[in-house]
Amino acid sequence: MRAATGGRWGRFWEQRARQLQRQVQAREEWIVDLETENAALHLRLAQYQGAAGQSGGASAGLCSLGGPRARLPRSPHAALLRLRPVIQALKQDIKALQASFLEVFRNFWDHLQTGLSEVAEGVQRAQLQHQALLSWRSKAGHLERCLQEADSRYQLEKQRRKVLHNRLVELKGNIRVHCRIRPLLPFDKESEDPASQNSSVPAEVVHAVDDETVLVKCDRATHPPINNTYSFERVYGPAESQQVEFGDVCPLLTSLLDGCNVGIMAYGQTGCGKSCTMLGPQSTGEPVPPWQPHSDLGVLPRAAGELFGLISENPSRSLKVDVSIVEVYNNNIFDLLAKDGRTAASGPKREVLTAQEAKQEVCLLTREPVHSAAEFTALAAGSLQLRAELATSVHAISSRSHLTITATLTTAPARGSPGAHHPRAAEQQANGPQQPEGSRRSASGGRAWPGALGAQRPAEQVHAKLQLVDLAGSECVGVSGVTGSALRETSFINRSLAALADVLGALAERRGHVPYGNSKLTHFLQDATRGGGDAKLLVILCVSPCRKHVAETLRCLGFGARARQVQRGQARGGSPAPRKPR
Ligand SMILES: Nc1ncnc2c1ncn2[C@@H]1O[C@H](COP(=O)(O)OP(=O)(O)OP(=O)(O)O)[C@@H](O)[C@H]1O
Q1: Are 402 and 470 in contact (CB under 8 A)?
Q2: How far does residue 46's CA lie from ligand 1's centre (Å)?
Q3: What is the Å distance from ligand 1's center to 382 Cα?
Q4: How far is 306 from 257, CA to CA, in rounded Å?
Q5: How far apart are CA 579 and CA 332, in angstroms?
Q6: Average pLDDT over residues 42-57
Q7: How many angstroms separate the CA atoms of 456 and 422, rounded?
Q8: What distance in angstroms lies between residue 281's CA and the mean position of ligand 1's atoms?
Q9: Could you tell me whether strands 319-329 and 332-335 are parallel, antiparallel, or unpaired per DSSP bridges?
Q10: Backbone conformation region of residue 331, classed left if phi is above 0, alpha if psi is from -120 to 50, else beta
Q11: Which of 247, 209, 206 is nearest to 538 (CA)?
Q12: Which of 275, 523, 531, 533 is the most exposed, having the fewest neighbouring CB atoms within 10 Å of its CB?
């Protein structure tokens, strides 16, 4: 019983204990919640305190706006009254700020609008330009096609023109004579005797009547009157320029490129303008004024320019130009390019050899390759320094020799040509007879074909030759006043010129024998003067207008008239078949 009662009480207290334990637990949880809430309230309080601090600072700021003495009264109403003007001022400031902001904004807007419209215009312009570009491009394409067509037409016309040109040259005759009257110069007066100076006969007695006629009119008391007219292919008056004169020479260069040998020769009395015509005034020691650098150039530099211009128009032909320069002095031939430049005398003496087909060759003649007009002229100018000159009473720098500048045009050797495999045979073919041991350098010009004999020299084909000849002046010994060795020179000059006249006379009369061999000059110039064929010769008669030289002038014009009578056969290579345009 007691045990049962004790068990009942035990369970009761056990339950009670559990109940109390649960209550304690619930109270602890509640405390935790309260503590959490308390912490949250503390946090909010801190936030409120912070906000109150800021508004306190703002009101202090407002008070400071009112001035140093402004103090917020204790009553809020009074404080508001004191703050009102400040607030009004602030409002006005804000309005002004707003207005200036609006102004700035409006400006910005205007700029933006302008910028946008400019961009739009730019885009429109770019589109238009693009369209224009497209249309120009198509026009350019069209023009390019037109140009190509025009170019091929031009090439065709060029070929036709070449054919016509050659026919014209043939019709005019392969030997042509021009006459150039130089102006009256100060030294003409100085050299005249006082009696003539006072005479009523005009100082100028030679006149160009028109482009083809020259008149010599002179009535002197002690001489029979002269009233002769001569006709030539072209007559130049004293005022006509070097350029005009070259305009008539130029077509011969086209013939040269077509394969014809061309000779251009200045003939006349001493001091009447041969060197000036052929070489330009520099050759006479008179510098060209710098303001007229090209106006006075003679035939040589102009022909060199034209030659290389024509060669460059057709590079596929690969024409090469070799130059040789020779002086015929006292009936001896001197190679001016073989000169080593250190000795004062002329270059080595060369002899004329007559090779097969009666073609002349000068043994061991130096041939210097040139690649431009400038090189050509410089080479000629260098060798001119070596030319024999003398001062006579007619001309202060009188040339005492005949000068021949020869440009040989060669084409590259054909593939498989025998010469290409046999250098010695090629050498002999190009150079004529074999050279002696002692003179090997000269045979090739040293610089032109290094290692001359035995060296591999290609078998070139000679395409054509251009010979520019500045003859020594014929002169009347009485007028030129020369004596001693100069007299001997004059005699050689006059004899060689007489031999030239004889050759032309024989050609004009079609004699069986043409006396080329009578002088080294005529022998050397066979290529240029020989009839029967493949050469075109232009003789430029240079005459003085002066009354004192009238006798020599008449002789010179007579020579020209005789030269005009020479009838020669058709030029070989004169009418090439039209080629396809490039
Ligand atoms: N057309 C011209 N216009 C102006 N001056 C000229 C003309 N032709 C020649 N002369 C001048 O006449 C002078 C003689 O000319 P140039 O030396 O050419 O004569 P040349 O016939 O070659 O004489 P030579 O046979 O004695 O060498 C030079 O002073 C030259 O400048």
Answers
A1: yes
A2: 122
A3: 20
A4: 10
A5: 44
A6: 78
A7: 8
A8: 8
A9: antiparallel
A10: left
A11: 247
A12: 533
Q: How far apart are CA 8 and CA 330, in angstroms?
A: 176
Q: Please report, in range form, the residues annotated as the binding site for ATP.
A: 268-275
DSSP states of 205-249 as a string? Answer: -EEEEETTEEEEEE--TTS--EEEEEE-SEEE-TT--HHHHHHHH
Residues 222-279: tens digit of each pLDDT: 778 889 999 998 999 999 999 999 998 998 898 898 888 899 999 998 889 999 999 8
The helix, strand and coil proportions of the chain, stated in percent and rounded to the nearest 5, come to 55, 15, 30
Pocket test for ligand 1, best of 206, 276, 474 (most atoms within 8 A of CB): 276
| C-alpha span between 215 and 273 (Å, rounded) | 18
Decide: residue 468, CB within 10 A, 0-12 exposed, 13-18 middle, 19+ buried.
buried
H or E element in which residue 44 lies: helix 2-65
Q: Tell me the three-class secondary structure of 290-315, residue by residue.
A: CCCCCCCCCHHHHHHHHHHHHHHHCH
Q: Which residues are annotated as a binding site?
A: 268-275
Q: Cα(564)–Cα(501) distance, rounded to whole angstroms? A: 12
pLDDT in tens, 362-378: 556 888 999 999 999 98
Q: How far is the CA of 447 from the centre of ligand 1 (A)?
A: 34
Cα(559) to centroid(ligand 1), Å: 20
Q: Provide the pLDDT confidence category of residue 384 given band limits of 50, 70 and 90.
A: confident
Strands 535-543 and 175-181: parallel
Q: Quick one: how far is CA 472 from the chain centroid?
A: 35
| Closest atom of ligand 1 to CA, residue 279 | 18
Identify the band that residue 171 occupies on the pLDDT scale cut at 50, 70 and 90: low
State whether ipTM is beyond 0.90.
yes
**Per-residue pLDDT tens over the stretch 525-571:** 887 776 445 678 899 999 999 988 888 899 999 999 988 887 544 44
Output the ligand 1 site: residues, CB below 6 A.
182-183, 185, 268, 270-276, 281, 284, 286, 395, 398-399, 472-473, 542
Structure tokens, 482: 């020369």
CA 302, CA 373: separation in Å to the nearest integer?
Answer: 8
Q: Which residue out of 235, 269, 284, 292 has the highest number of ligand 1 atoms within 8 Å of its CB and is therefore the one to mutate?
A: 284
pLDDT in tens, 456-491: 445 668 788 999 999 988 766 555 555 666 677 788
For residue 259, the SS3 value is: coil
Residue ranges and CATH numbers for the domains of the chain are: 173-287+303-412+460-564 (3.40.850.10)
CB 360 within 8 A of CB 524: yes
